[in-house]
Design brief:
alpha+beta; 6 helices; three-stranded antiparallel β-sheet; single chain; 2 domains; about 180 residues; elongated
């Protein structure tokens, strides 16, 4: 069997239920929307999979609307992404304007990381001083239950709009160049 190749960039830019439906179609070739209407089923909200020790393991219960269908059918099992783990290596610095509302935050996530969220899918914690550094504040953002793609929390750093962290990106430094120090 060929390795699974999903268009992750495209999927992560979609609402969670749409991304889940498209991922199922890309992964196993099943049109989930058609399947739901044809068999008279709906998918329940995603839950942690109680049969697995993996915190990413998730299942979406299958709810039958037709009483003649087998109500004990197995749920769809898959894995979700932890938002904190996903953004661990990425730019997590933003301004107070970027965290002023859920709408502003989702605009920042889409612009900086290509991640789509409905504003109602995120809970923004209180901005507090960073105990480790005086030049920034911290805020915790939590994905609400019911998201098909994401779960968990991420800590973001709130800084002034002219803070160097907003302009310096990991992996892009050239180091000291000869042309910078030698005059011709």
């Amino acid at each position: 069997m060929a390795p699974l190749a999903l268009n992750y960039q495209g999927l992560l830019g979609l609402p969670s239920a749409t991304a889940f439906t498209k991922a199922i179609q890309e992964a196993i070739g099943v049109d989930l929307t058609y399947w739901e209407s044809y068999y008279g089923v709906t998918l329940g909200a995603p839950e942690d999979n109680p049969t697995s020790d993996d915190p990413h393991a998730t299942w979406a219960p299958v709810v039958y609307t037709n009483p003649c269908q087998d109500p004990d059918d197995e749920p769809l099992s898959y894995t979700r992404l932890n938002l904190g783990e996903y953004l661990d290596c990425c730019l997590r610095y933003l301004t107070a304007d970027d965290i002023a509302s859920p709408t502003a935050l989702v605009a920042w996530l889409l612009a900086k990381h290509g991640l789509y969220f409905d504003p109602a899918e995120l809970t923004i914690g209180t901005v507090t001083p960073d105990p480790d550094r005086s030049d920034r504040q911290v805020v915790t953002v939590t994905v609400v239950d019911g998201n098909y793609v994401w779960y968990g929390t991420v800590t973001l750093y709130v800084v002034a709009s002219n803070h160097l962290a907003l302009y310096a990106y990991p992996g892009t430094a050239k180091g000291l160049q000869w042309s910078d120090v030698l005059a011709s």
